[in-house]
Write a structure and sequence with these properties.
- By secondary structure, the chain is of the alpha+beta class.
- It has helices at residues 4-9, 13-18, 39-42, 99-104, 108-112, 115-132, 145-148, 154-157, 241-246, 254-266, 286-296, and strands at residues 45-47, 53-61, 80-98, 160-162, 169-177, 182-186, 196-207, 210-227, 234-240, 279-284, 306-311, 319-324, 327-331.
- The chain has 11 helices and 13 strands.
- Strands 4-9-5-10-13-12-11 form a 7-stranded mixed β-sheet. Strands 1, 2, 3, 6, 7 and 8 form a 6-stranded mixed β-sheet that branches.
- Strand 11 (306-311) and strand 12 form a beta hairpin.
Amino acid sequence: MTTAAQNNEMHTLLDWNLKRNPEGGELVIAELMHQNNQFTQIVPFREANDGVGHKVGVRTSLPQAHLSAYGLRHKASHSTTAVITEPTAFAVTWAKVNADLAELNGGDPAILSEAAPHAEALAQLVENAMVNGDHVTDPLEPVGLAIRHSSLSGEAGKVTIDGGGTTNLQSIYLVGMGPGAVYGIFPKGSKTAGIQSDYIGKVSDQNDDGELLVHKWRWSQKFGLAEEDHRFTQRIANISLSDLEAGTGTTKNLIYLMKKARARVQSRFRIKVGPQGINHYWLMSSKMFEYLLHQIDSAVSQGSGIRYENVDNGFLKNVTMPTFMGVPIIFSEQILDGTEELVS
């Protein structure tokens, strides 16, 4: 007897029949569940330096300097440093396909039809963790981008801008990616920095009802996020989508907020450093980009338009991307609506 658990784990004969076209071939499936998640695709990755963790050293104070006169004595001093260990995470999804049903429905094409949705499910989980992960709340998650810029006061307040909204909130990030700033990490000794596919083979699958011959494989990714100097990244938080839709309220002017973020980064560092340096990207949802485009129309004459430019910065090679104020725009649908309001 086939149990409900088996039906959830594998396709039934009805499932396979629904995926066949009238001529008996494989039906072309529209992948409506795919998302535009570019942060994990574009952020540079490096191997962790401490097993499954990655140690980052930061200077926390400078030696003491003095105004002096000839002959006066002063005590020697030294700087202080701290070591932060960035954690990595492990994401996995398993697939099982009834071997007999697969052979009746074309063999390899039937098996491969499940590859795309499994890889997409894994990619969405990893993107969400890279943006929203909170290692303190859930030790299985890495430390995501949002939690690093989650206060309007203290040191975090210097790299977080208040959009002024209170309901239906989202964020825009100006992310500095590269050595010394934000980059992805994977455990030392890993085979790959990206998604790894392992075909286990045609094996016997056992449960209380007996055995079944299945094709079995696993997709997995080991990953994490590191941020060395947080000043390379700015978060514009508390952006009210309701205000943007109505065209009123304190968060209606995205262009002003984005110029403010760019000026904060520009005042300290060059916005683009080069192939081995820091490259900046605007990171936002597609919904936020839609609101930005609406506001851009009236600001083009002021030099604030969206341009589509060829990006070649060492990490990306000859890729045409939308840019704002010379900075490429990338998208993540894991920047979710309804985030909590950040307060001082």
